[in-house]
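Consider this today:
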Amino acid sequence: MSAAHRDAPHIAFCGGGSGGHIVPSFAILEALRERTPEWTATFLCSAREVDQLVLRDLDSRDRVVPLPMRSSRRKIRYALQVVNSVRLCRRVLQESRPDVILGTGGFASLPGVLAGHWCGIPIALLEPNAVMGRANLRLAGRADTIFRGWKAEDDQSGSQVATGVPVMRKFFPQRGHSDSQTLLITGGSLGASRLNQLVLDATALADLQDWKIVHQTGPEDFERVRTAWARISSNVTVTPFLANTAGALCEASLVIARCGAVTLAEIAATETPSVLVPLGNSADDHQKQNA
């Protein structure tokens, strides 16, 4: 709907490629609608399957626009994808004319933020990690405000505000006390092959007979891990993707997880005891800094 025919406030979220670059948008939109229920949103995300999975249950008022990009690894191809995606984003933003654009990080955030800047729309960035990501570093000069999960020690512009990491209300329930023991293993929305293998190797040293186990593997490692668990225990649920992360964390007696900022915020909100295993080759070692 064009701005001329839209009375409701509208926000465009730009980011994707993993759940951590999209999920904070839900908490922000939830908070906006608590104040003004009429808020609508456009999500400019990547074409990866994980983005579509995370965004599949949106409100009917909201719009998802997958951009023709899946990775930033091949630099020349990525540059061409950014150019084509910027053109698409400009058409979408000129039509919907959002009141504000929020870049949520990841390789898919660049086109929407760049297009919004050229369209004269106010720009904000969200950086939940302790170390600012590369996409946000590139876009910082175009942002009016940068919301940080942690207080920034290097803010020379005065535009950075420490807000913490946005988390939806469903992650703050009253935790019950269950006699059953549940172990949750999660490597984030994309999974973590090395973490999956570490856990499988560790089962030889642990007595898991009385434990219910939920193992979120990511799509690429699902069949291998499911086959391995079938030889170890029958009381295991193996899934490539957690459709209800809040429920899984609230039911867990213990979670073994990577250290993405959103994952850590959700673990803290649900007060779930945790064993944290930072990704050793994360960009700028940000997972270790988060932990």
